[in-house]
Write a structure and sequence with these properties.
The chain is mainly α. It is built from three helices and no strands.
């Protein structure tokens, strides 16, 4: 039971992070800075924005502000191997 609650808490936290990223991207659209690197002020390549619409930096500065990849940290119940659990 605790594992399920922990999993849901992790999913909720990741979802909130994605929502924050989208809201920041929308704010940049509103203020005219969408597509401008927050680190150097240069343009963010269109291909990068196509791949990662919430990108805040150009390819030269990807680790400074871009969101970390998110995903489940453990297999979903249907993906766990069958058998006795510990």
């Amino acid at each position: 039971m605790a594992q399920t609650a922990d999993h849901y808490a992790a999913v909720l936290s990741a979802s909130e992070g994605v929502l924050d990223d989208v809201e920041r991207a929308l704010a940049r659209l509103d203020d005219g800075t969408y597509g401008v690197c927050e680190a150097c002020g240069g343009p963010i390549d269109h291909a990068r924005l196509d791949e990662l619409p919430v990108a805040r930096t150009c390819a030269g500065h990807p680790r400074l502000t871009d969101p970390a990849p998110t995903g489940p940290s453990e297999p979903r119940p249907a993906e766990r191997p069958a058998g006795p659990s510990a």
